[in-house]
Amino acid sequence: MTQLPPIPQWSSLHTLIVHFPIVLFLLLPLLMIAAAMSRKTTNHAFLIAAFVLMVLATGFLYLTYFTGDAMAAASEDGSTVGAVIRHHCSMAGYTVSAFTLATTLFAVALLVRRVLRLEDMRDLTPWIPISFLVFYALGVFWLVLTAHQGATLAHELLRSSTGY
Hints:
Blueprint: H1 14-17, H2 19-37, H3 40-74, H4 80-115, H5 127-162
Helix pairs in contact: 2-3, 3-4, 4-5
């Protein structure tokens, strides 16, 4: 009789889910561009799809952050690797903060657009879309740096544990 694989520990889930927020956040501009280029009748649908994608990506980002924190706590040591892991965690914290602010500002923009019954996002006061783009760009910057350091860290740990 076949047996189901064991449920992984919380700390080992980080390596399984870390790619979801990266992909979702990097796909988001495609929906934003589609919303900007679409007619006013379909613009709202693209913006709602982008918002749902952003909320999903932010949720996965929090899940990734907490599983990574558990992984760091499980491998806590005073070596150089431990210092690199702590730095990776602090960079992940900046990523979470930037995307949380960007998601919140996007929600505010959609809410203001709905309350004021605006047809186009460009009709909003300019600070909401501009501040969203600033925090989104900052989030992508931290996301790429954190992902690169995480990949380097994983490969170094793999290399040191296997001897290659």
